[in-house]
Amino acid sequence: MKHTERIVIIGFGPVAASLIEGLLPGVSAGTIELSVISAEPELAYNRVLLAEVAVGAAAAEHLNMVDGQRLREAGVKLHLGVTATGVDRSRRRVHLAGAAPLAYDRLVFATGARPVIPSLNGLNFDPHAESALPAGVLALRTLQDAHDLQQILSRRGRVLVLGGGILGIEAALAMAQAGHQPVLVHHGPAPLGRVVDADGGRLLIGSLQAAGVEVVSGVKATGIHTAQGFTGLATDTHGIIAGDGLLISTGVRARTELAASCGLETNRGIRTNKYLAADTEHRVFALGDCAEVDGHPPVGLLAPGWAQASWLAGFLLNHRAPRPDGPSRPIPADLPAPVFDTSDVLMLKGQGLEVTAAGDTSGGLFDQDKQVVVYADPANGRYLRLVTRDAVPKGFVAMGLPRTAAELVLAYERGTALPKDASTLLRLDDPADQSPAVAPGPGDQLCRCSGATYGEVEHAVESGCTTVTEVGESCRAGTGCGGCKATIEQMLNKLPVPA
Ligand SMILES: Cc1cc2nc3c(=O)[nH]c(=O)nc-3n(C[C@H](O)[C@H](O)[C@H](O)COP(=O)(O)OP(=O)(O)OC[C@H]3O[C@@H](n4cnc5c(N)ncnc54)[C@H](O)[C@@H]3O)c2cc1C
Fold it and tell me: Ligand 1 — pocket residues by CB below 6 A?
């Protein structure tokens, strides 16, 4: 007799959206009863483009990731605007705020991450509570945050962005490009301090300033000042930095408290084995930004989460749960372990500022065990620091050199050797020299957000996709930040693809 398995997913971000899509065949066939609990009132949306929404460069509808009507018609039960408050693992129930508990046979945590709020006088923020930040202070994680930022900007407000990481820089650049005057406030000598060395940092500051971002470095923030809303950032180093809004961009932390409260192991994420199982009975799973898979802390990017969702959907469909009243059925020991690795290449997306970094760029020019090459042309905003061992790139940071950077990414990810004379790489960004770059192969990554490769996009095109949207539906390429859409267009039009 067919038994219908009850699967409950807690969280409805981009990763849960992908898992639901993968489980739909089971829902349609009646073998899975799927319930999804979402604290946010909206259907899953693409967080990557929140800054664009805040500055008016993209409409909120543009971020939609799922068709709610289609999911409901297929039988998926969506509980939007409902928070899961507890999990009773012995009775296999999820408790909800303001609604009856949901019973499950298997449970998936896709609770994502929340922004890290620094300890500043005046914030008094509880890291495990959804308490509101003071008016004018926000962190760009939800659509509501994007709308709040839009409000401040619509009053021509001066927004301070606290944090010199990639998301802070991208938000500041988006604001500057839309004609606002953002101020990037951070504590190190230069933004992106973990990957950019001192000279690269100076050049980055110059490029940010040229793009319209005021940069205040070396700041030790101590508190906030408010008077019916945010008025300034108190610092030990720069007095009070006045502003009409504070965008906190100081990292994210996995949402683990619900899992911890029902006895699951947590560390920098909900701890799972290599098969994403978080409990010994293999009834509870975790993935995406909330999961520490097989000892690897979450990286806060879409690609690994989407790879995990695709694998877990296949696993849940093909390895039925133990019957509700029967003994547990652990994951077979001989099941091949999935691989969810992700690239550590960091790219500033869009906004006309080309920065790409990867790996370890430490080392001196005269080190014996590695070769360090530095090229600097501050007047033209160009900079390269490249570290190789036996000619294979181990780390690099490239600014204002997009084609050189693309070639370095290929060599770095493939682990292949570069030409002995590294200066020949720079020819790629010489407007007078049109020599062809190294062609990407089928296994090279085309879309950094989804992890989709050139081969997968090629396959989508050969299978009949005629638009970028169709390619995205087929293999997810182009559905994150959208930075690779031009390359996909070229492949659709059968034009040569630049590296
Ligand atoms: C501004 C910005 C730019 C980004 N840019 C990039 C980029 O360029 N490339 C890239 O790869 N990634 C980027 N990211 C990161 C990417 O968005 C995340 O990796 C992705 O959102 C993770 O998806 P997720 O589904 O695991 O978690 P989340 O997106 O965090 O979703 C989790 C959901 O679970 C809900 N939830 C949590 N607890 C509960 C509960 N108890 N009950 C009910 N619901 C609950 C939350 O409210 C949330 O809706 C960016 C993120 C931001 C904010």
Answer: 10-16, 37-40, 47-48, 50-51, 83-84, 110-113, 140-141, 167, 255, 258, 288-289, 300-303, 305, 349, 449, 480-481
DSSP per residue, 24-80: HHHHHHTSEEEEEEESSSSPPB-GGGHHHHHTTSS-GGGGB-S-HHHHHHHT-EEEE
Q: How far is the CA of 298 from the centre of ligand 1 (A)?
A: 12
DSSP states of 330-391: PPPTTSPPP-------EE--STT--EEEEE-----TT-SSSEEEEEEEGGGTEEEEEEEETT
- Report the distance separating Cα 216 and Cα 334, nearest Å: 55
Taking the centre of ligand 1 as the mean of its atom positions, its distance from the CA of residue 300, in whole angstroms, is 8
pLDDT, tens digit (0-9, with 9 covering 90-100), for 62-113:
899 999 999 999 999 999 999 999 999 999 999 999 999 999 999 999 999 9
Number of Cβ within 10 Å of residue 144's Cβ equals 12
Ligand 1 atom closest to the Cα of residue 16 is 25
Candidate CATH numbers 3.20.20.70, 3.60.21.10, 3.40.50.2000, 3.50.50.60; the one for domain 137-250: 3.50.50.60
Ligand 1, atom 28, lies closest to the CA of: 112
Q: Report yes or no on whether pTM surpasses 0.85.
A: yes
> Atom 35 of ligand 1 has which residue's CA nearest to it?
11
Q: Ligand 1 test: best mutation among 40, 47, 138, most atoms within 8 Å of CB?
A: 47
Q: pLDDT tens across 305-360, in order?
A: 999 999 999 999 998 776 666 666 778 888 988 988 777 888 887 667 889 999 98
Q: Is 218 helix (H, G, I), strand (E, B) or coil?
A: coil
Class of domain 439-499: mainly alpha
